[in-house]
Amino acid sequence: MSTTSEYAIYADDPEIRRRAEENARQFVHHETQFQLGHLPTEQPHPYTERFSSVVQQDTAAGIALLLNVDADIPPVARRVFLSPEYGSLVSAVGRAATTDRKICFSGCGSTGRLAMMLEEMWRQYWEDKAGVGPGDAARGTDGTHPALRKAEQAASVMTGGDRALIRSVESFEDHAAYGRRQIADLGLQRGDILVAITEGGETSSVIGTVEEGLERGCEVFLVYNNPTAVLVGSIERSRQVIEDPRVTVLDLYTGSMALTGSTRMQATTVEMVVVGSALEEVFRTVDGEAVSTGDRLEQANRFARLLGELSEIDNRQTMAALAERESQIYEGGGRVTYLASRFLLDVFSDTTERSPTFMLPPFRPADDESAPVSWAYAKDPLRSSPDAWFAMLRRAPRGIDWTADDYRRMGTWETLGAAPPSLGADEIARYLIGNEPDPTRTAVTPHLFLSIAVGEDGAHAEAPDGSGIAGGAKEPRNPHPADLLRIGAAGGDERRRGATGAGYTVSVRVPESPVLLWHHVATKLVMNTISTASMGIMNRIRGNWMVQLDPTNKKLIDRGSRIIAHIRGIGYPEACEELYRSLLARERLRAEGGHSTTSPVVDALDRLGG
What 3-state DSSP class applies to 501? Predict the structure, then answer.
């Protein structure tokens, strides 16, 4: 595949060449702590070396390759479930459940979204106990109910605030000071519990949350997915917190990712299974159940059974059919809109992660008519946007309203440019995720509305016709009906035509859980698989390298350089310089009012290789 980017013409400019050489020299010689090619999470997995070519020839076979890598997870989960560190995590979560101690989950990118989901699971359990709807605890409904007071003890820190759930915040993960400040803003105190989750164990902002939590006297856990010895031996910021005796470490190393560096996949999945299982165990105990060592091991077995069922040929063909349909819609200039209510956060997470992972247009604010419309979007067909935000998070969105002086005190003002990024609650409210009319989703053809139902009985398939999304909230029926993706229903004619369009069923058993853990895991696996396969079909992956990435932080500059070096067979310093040529050329285009959807990595690859 060869393309010409919108900014390729600028790459040969002498000034850009000079600056690229200077920037690359600086990065190669002075940013060694962000050169992460030695970490397994940044290395290609041998199972999926030919993923892009396989998925284009036989989508179901390509999906089998992805699911084969997920099979690395159960043995690790079994080991961790038997470890004293996991026992300590369960005990700490139990203290939060039975005392007035707060519990906070922190993360960045995919693990930031996981942190928000773990908070949602905590809140969901207590709201279910109180018999109220999603978010009613935060709204103060019957605030005297003890379960609703317990719901409010949980919090989460997503690097960049909740706005980063919608679209990535450039360079924020590079700064430990930001993680520190977000913990300080929550007011955590001595005896509170912090569970910090970083995909690879080296994310600066998440490490900052650990440092601030320790300083405040919190009980701190650090969860990651790389070998401890490698992190301690090569990355100083990781070594300092891992070797701190006050930190309880859970090393969940499962191996390389199905796509090189795509920690939204196996790394975040095993972290969801392990930390989510700790929540589930505590709440089963609160409900009067006795949980044994055998019950802990059964959690790993549940994942293995779920994975085995997903891997059956009928389910792979169903996911393949959806991936092929999505890719055809995107290639035809169309749009996909997912409809969900109970599991909107799960669907939202996968959908928004596609932008930085595959450089798709990010979600667009409703009042911004100049930016490109996102290929995929997620909405709640049952609620207005303010109510949808509350129901999805089970609380009001948390924005960041730091001033220029705040950034100066943290020593990062020069990295921001002319003004602080807009990350407050008002900015979040610009994104309409409810049932308000949204003609952008149907302004082009083809388009697809896909309603997501999760669970054995499909009880969560609210409004599968997508009422109110395109035709207007007051209309009784959407003139553009939705198809239905059912995750979990078993038996019968699973692939039937429904009254509102095509029906797709991924037939798996979803075990019951007080925090709906397996509903979340199943949804994540299915959505990750479909979105990855569709991008593979569209040539946005080469081998198992995500070439369509946007190098918005130091980790991604390193990864982009390694991709160029690997595919074009050149040295790392030269590859880094070529990447900077593309970055600076794109910067020039934007300064002149232009717009580009081509990754600087792809621009460099095509410039070097034709």
Answer: strand
Nearest to 540 by CA among 348, 263, 337, 331: 331
How many Cα atoms sit within 13 Å of 368 on the Cβ side?
13
Q: Are 581 and 11 in contact (CB under 8 A)?
A: yes
Q: Taking CA 22 as the corner, what is the angle to CA 357 and CA 564, rounded to the nearest 5 degrees?
A: 35
How far, CA to CA in Å, does 544 sit from each of 269, 301, 532, 559, 597?
18, 28, 11, 13, 21
* pLDDT tens-digit series, residues 470-513: 444 443 334 457 899 999 975 444 443 333 346 899 999 999 99
Q: What is the pLDDT of residues 225-282, one digit of tens each?
A: 999 999 999 999 999 999 999 999 999 999 999 999 999 999 999 999 999 999 999 9
**Cβ-proximal residues to 514 (8 Å cutoff; 6+ apart), any chain:** 125, 128, 280, 283, 284, 287
**Residue 250 bridge partners (DSSP):** 223
First vs last Cα of the chain: how many Å apart? 8
Q: How far is CA 112 from CA 11, 70, 196, 259, in A?
A: 35, 21, 9, 20
The β-bridge partners of 384 are none
Q: How far is it, in rounded angstroms, from Cα 428 to Cα 354?
A: 19
Q: Are 258 and 544 in contact (CB under 8 A)?
A: yes
Ranges of each domain in the chain: 8-44+545-609, 73-253
Contact between 208 and 106 (Cβ < 8 Å): no
Within a 10 A sphere around the Cβ of 50, how many other Cβ atoms?
Answer: 13
Tokens of 445: 């053809």
* Radius of gyration of the CA atoms of the chain, in A: 23
DSSP H/E element including 454: strand 447-454
Block residue for tokens 């792979």: 316
- Count, in order, helices (H) and strands (E) of the chain: 23, 11
DSSP H helical ranges for 359-452: 385-393, 404-409, 425-428
Q: How many CA atoms lie within 13 A of 553 on its CB side?
A: 20
Q: Can you tell me the distance from the alpha carbon of 563 to that of 323, in angstroms, rounded to the nearest whole number?
A: 25
Q: Are 486 and 456 in contact (CB under 8 A)?
A: no
Is 0.85 surpassed by the pTM of this model? yes
Contact 442, 480 (CB under 8 A): yes
Classify residue 473 by burial, with Cβ atoms within 10 Å: 0-12, 13-18, 19+.
Answer: middle
Whether CATH 3.40.50.1100 fits 73-253: no
3-state secondary structure of 219: strand
Report phi then psi at 82, rounded to 5. -95, 0
**Cβ-based neighbour number of residue 144 at 10 Å:** 6
In this structure, which amino acid lies at residue 200? G
